[in-house]
Design a protein that fits this description.
Length: about 240
């Protein structure tokens, strides 16, 4: 079953055509990665899908439901949660309060409490710091907090934008292990990531964007074996 269907998505920033009619599908249970250099349109794609930037043309469906015109604040209630580039945690609030904000659209107090404990079990460092100001966390801990906050929305589809950005290599490995664990527990993931090698290692399918267009798509193994990808993104050739 297709969790997400994107058809002929076009986005403009002023007079600039940032996305030029891209189409792809993400199946339920997959990790699907979007690759590409800076300015290729990866972040714009996620923002358009989650209703943060307007779409000029095209259609987006989530679990068969047309969500093209749904505003960003309403997306989590429909099952799509976006963890943005740069983490965007709330400094001045505790770790615990940041996590609870991820469940802003939910009314099931028992389920929220249960999910909070699940997140703390998945991210033990956050459990140790639950009363600490989120702004005092390390970069890696802030990324874990951003992902945990996203999970508090109980998403069917989790959009992750550059989760490894600015992290030390050992923390990058930990974050990618956690992404796999979140997926193993049943959440479909759409991952934007500049570390192509790691992304292709954990993804089922992949798509490469170049200047707002899809240049290549297929299984992660097929994309990883492509000569251009090896040369440009994987340091081979």
């Amino acid at each position: 079953m297709n969790m997400l269907e994107v058809e002929n998505l076009v986005v403009h920033y002023g007079g600039i055509r940032a996305l030029k009619g891209i189409s792809f599908q993400v199946r339920q249970g997959e990790i699907f990665t979007l690759l590409g250099s800076n300015g290729a349109g990866k972040t714009t794609t996620l923002k358009a899908l989650s209703g943060l930037v307007p779409k000029t043309e095209g259609r987006v469906k989530l679990c068969g439901r047309d969500i093209t015109a749904v505003p960003g604040h309403a997306m989590p209630a429909l099952g799509m949660v976006h963890v943005p580039e740069g983490r965007r945690i709330f400094s001045g609030l505790s770790v615990n309060d940041n996590l609870l904000l991820g469940a802003y659209h939910r009314k099931d107090k028992g389920g929220i409490k249960e999910d909070l404990e699940t997140v703390y079990a998945l991210f033990p460092r956050l459990a140790e710091r639950r009363r600490q100001d989120a702004g005092s966390l390390s970069g890696g801990e802030q990324q874990m907090l951003a992902m945990g906050r996203g999970l508090m929305g109980r998403p069917q589809l989790l959009l992750l934008d550059e989760p490894s950005m600015g992290l030390a290599p050992i923390l990058v490995e930990e974050v990618f292990r956690l992404i796999q664990e979140i997926n193993r527990r049943g959440t479909t993931i759409l991952l934007v990531e500049q570390n192509a090698s790691l992304a292709l290692d954990i993804a089922h399918k992949a798509c490469v964007l170049e200047t707002g267009q899809i240049a290549l798509s297929g299984t992660a193994q097929e994309v990883a074996k492509d000569g251009r990808i090896q040369e440009i993104y994987l340091g081979a050739g």
